[in-house]
Amino acid sequence: MKKNNMYFKLYSDNVIIKGAKNYLIYDLTLSRIKEIPELLFFVIKECEIMTYEQVKIKNKDIKKGIDTYINHLINDNWGTFVSDVAAFPEINFEYLRPSKISHAIIELNFNETHKKTHQKAIFELMNFNCNHIQFIISDKKKSEYFDFINKIIYKSNFTSVIIKSQFDGNEYDEQKIRCYLQNNKRIKKIFFFDADVEKTIIISEPFTSKLILTKQPMNTCSVKQPVYILNRLFFYESLHKNNCLNGKICIDKNGNVKNCLYIDEIFGNIKKNSIKSIIDNTKFCNLWDLSKDKIEICKDCEFRYMCFDCRFLLSDKANTISKPLFCNYNPYE
Ligand code: SF4
Fold this sequence. Notes:
Blueprint: E1 7-10, E2 14-18, E3 23-27, E4 32-36, H1 38-47, H2 52-58, H3 63-75, E5 79-82, E6 103-108, H4 115-127, E7 132-137, H5 142-154, E8 160-166, H6 174-183, E9 187-193, E10 199-203, E11 209-213, H7 232-240, E12 248-251, E13 256-258, E14 268-269, H8 275-281
Parallel strand pairs: 6-7, 6-12, 7-8, 8-9, 9-11
Antiparallel strand pairs: 1-5, 2-3, 3-4, 10-11, 12-13, 13-14
The chain binds iron/sulfur cluster.
Residues 226, 292, 297-298, 301, 303-304, 307, 323-324, 327, 329, 331 line the site of iron/sulfur cluster.
């Protein structure tokens, strides 16, 4: 069949996102973006319901330009000609997650919160089918915490564990940490902050894990500049939910339950409350639904479904829906 009688269609995982002034195509499989002119956006939309010939007749003044752009999109693998558009339905962008809580960050401090209290909270997280857990150790008695983590994750259903610890030159034993990583397949990364070197050691046996020493301070949010993530999962989540806080729970060194360790608001304490009661009976989950479409300025930005959101460092501290502080991009210019 000749292309004039066919329809041009972007591949289903290539999605056009409209900003206040600019248009981007996100390639959710190859993790790339392409800026397109506004006119091409309308042409692509017309191509979904009209044959290529009909589109060019309708836009006869620019038909050469249309040919150039569409050929370019085809050569660069963004789309193709099809004879039956109905045979290539849109992807369902619904976001569903099997567990209510997917991420947990726990600041371990046995001086403030007893081991058994932590244990109880971690077992509750397992019952929630929480996949990812991050432990933060700022106290001095590191080996006690490492032993505790080792025991508690051994029979857990966590699929990935990250440990962040303060570096202590007197206690640091690289060989021991390497063995620890090799013996704990669920631990993906161990960070040591405030170290005197920048160093990453990759351990590839039996599975890949990393030991990272960094000069960066520990007690700060690591998101200090725009972070862009382009893949299906992040896109689907960003369409509907806050892509930093959704499904996340943080427990600070005093046992306080928060959305983010750095945000002041507290919803309960693991010494007195179960995680379930906090989630069910407080406004804990409200921020989970704050997608980029609800955030001032971001809602008009073409990067909004690939841009990591931060609700701690805001451009206007008094306004909970102001855009992240770190971003200088203006989608209206
Ligand atoms: S933070 Fe900046 S780049 Fe990201 S969506 Fe908002 S305006 Fe766009």
